[in-house]
Design a protein that fits this description.
The protein has 132 residues and is of the alpha+beta class. Helices cover 44% and strands 11% of the residues. Strand 5 and strand 6 form a beta hairpin. It is globular and about 40 Å long.
């Protein structure tokens, strides 16, 4: 399945970062929205997140999919922040704290969170990643 391919980073010698399906889905959602997204309004992007998650997720039941998306898009839950924090740690371990700033989802509290990375440096599903 194309969506299950790893995300590769051209500027890191085409290396890949292993992300859990939900982490990958969140990362790709933020890549597709270069202007950034508000964590507390993620439910507005639930359909887009669902589409991505279904393409990367493994053996998802409809109930499992809906429960997971409910948790991630609910501003009263801390699930999205936990996912973003895990990804930041993975990037920090792979490229160091300073470089991780470009790959991680980041932003001021209450502001849009975004990924600073140049999208042309990301390859997923066989093509250089560009926002839609």
């Amino acid at each position: 399945t194309p969506g299950r391919e790893p995300i590769r980073f051209i500027d890191m010698g085409n290396s890949q970062l292993r992300l859990a399906p939900l982490e990958k889905a969140v990362f790709i959602l933020f890549l597709k929205n270069p202007e950034g997204l508000y964590f507390n309004r993620l439910s507005e992007h639930r359909e887009q997140l669902q589409e991505i998650y279904m393409s990367v997720g493994h053996n998802l039941t409809l109930a499992n999919l809906n429960n997971t998306l409910d948790d991630v898009t609910n501003p009263m839950e801390n699930r999205l922040s936990e996912i973003v924090s895990k990804m930041r740690n993975k990037f920090s371990r792979q490229v160091g704290e300073e470089m991780a700033e470009h790959y991680a989802i980041d932003g001021q509290r209450g502001e849009r969170k975004r990924i600073k990375l140049d999208r042309s440096l990301v390859v997923w599903s066989g093509t250089t990643y560009q926002a839609e």
